[in-house]
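Methods — Computational structure assignment.
A single polypeptide chain was analysed. Its primary sequence is given first, followed by the predicted tertiary structure written as structure tokens.
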Amino acid sequence: MFSDARFRKFIGSVAAIGAAALVLVGCSPSTDQGGTFADDGCTSVVVATSSEKVNLMEDLGAAFKDSAEHKGLEKCATVHAVNVASGKAAQYLSDSTTEWALGADTAPSVWSPASTVWTNRVASIAGDKVVAGAESFAKTPVVFGMPESMAKALGYPGKPISLKQIHDLIANPDGWGAAGKSMWGSFKIAKTNPNSSTTGMSMLLMQAYAASGKAQDLTVADVKAAEEFSRVFESGAIHYGDTTGKVLQNLADRTSGKGSSYVSAIALEETSLYNYNIGNPDSHTVQPGETLTPPDEKLVAVYPSEGSMWSDNPAVVLDAKWVTPEQKTASAAFVKFLHTKKAQELLPKYGFRPTDDSVDVSKYLNADVGVDPKQPAVTLPQPEPEVVSAAIDQWAAIRKPSAILQLIDISGSMDESIGDGRTRLDGAIEGSTATLGQIRPTDEIGVWAFTTGLSSNIDGTRVNGIGVVRPFGVLGGDKEGLQSDIEDLANSQRAGTPLYDSISSAYDYMKTHAEAGRINAIVVLSDGEDTDSATRLDTLIQKINADQKEGGNDKPVRIFAIAYSKAADVESLEKLARASGGQVFDATDPAKITETFQSVMNNF
């Protein structure tokens, strides 16, 4: 194992690599605030890629400039990496190949999702031609990341750990007590939403494989038979989401409680675990001069004894209307370069395993960063697209139910324009109502609005600053009624912003109404700083932190905050969300509020 000094030296070398890569691409065009790439006279190769590969793609783009593949082009080409979740990109391409959903400025000519499962899915919906020739250039196994002390309690590293063992710990009312660690409370896991996340989808399939006892030839019937086995896994989820980055950031910050008070195991890709251990928990783009600080306790990769699926990271030139002939030629050269020795040797620096087995990965991927390059012992093949669809459809029925209280700012500043004749409040209403399809009849939901001058009777107590738009309760079949209630906000009065008082009241209410079998959450949207609260920020954070203790509480309330407009108090919202084990979502561009609401609701 590394000593502290040696480990930090290793981290420094990795940080320097990331910074050097970014210095190299610094001479390439960057994007302005509108997302348009600067014109350097070269053909633009836009690569839509999953978040964990943005740094890598920038480095590969710089190396491409000096490659034989680039020199063979008639005109220079510049690679631009844009972060698009694999599942979202698959949906956009399945919906249309004539217009890119995120705008022409970032329309990709190359797509590199985390797995060929997504390219296969697009091919099955939009046709093979759209993603013809998709081929893996990098790979990383899907594992459970566990704090080393917890993994050792289960026999790591000498004893293999199975999905069945994790299933039984989640199902056991004694939780960690079944492993002799009762002070750690229940066994909690973090998973991502399989509709948008490769890891979430792969873990669903791994669960089905484990339940069936198979290591290949998974069928739709196997998925159906695994329903109760998978339901147990979902019952242990703290929440979902598009990526594991925020969960890993919370764990690294330790503002969400130590050990199992927050999470016991995280379903993730090995490369994300690597990034966590080198001090980049959310796999963000490392900036020149940025110092990476490793966590207090590393995560170790648990390779389930039943086997792991791999994220095989293809890259493909898209057959889409927006891709010009010139871009197709340059993009094909870049994709060809990705399979060269020069490109393959860059992959381990970013936590990926090369497809070229002759490349030595041991300098970067080793036990010091929680990785065993000899694992997994069993590789689980990707099943047919109809099996993947069956698993995703099943998840919609078995996912952990939610209890959500939406808390919407209706202060005077919400009247400000966001363009197209809409106000900020109009955008908030549209974002909230557009995502109602994700709420199941068995989910609980309530909607409150906050501004000064309002007052409501809540559980027999008069609460100032709050207007109850929709009383909290099981949705049932009243989705249209919920939509109508939210739309009524358009007629509400506007005044001050008692942000902290309102969050405090909502948190107290949800603590009283939270249930152990649900994801209990407050979704707060605010476009400005607190102006009218008696509650202080530090007092509110202390109250939330008091619930985050070793062993944890079996019905935590998590805050998911939307920072709406550039005037939003992002720093305060970030502190409150992290204290609760939740997340903050950036809607500082109010025009993208519906997309932001979608990301928020993917947690439930």
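Note: The first strand starts at residue 43 and ends at 49.
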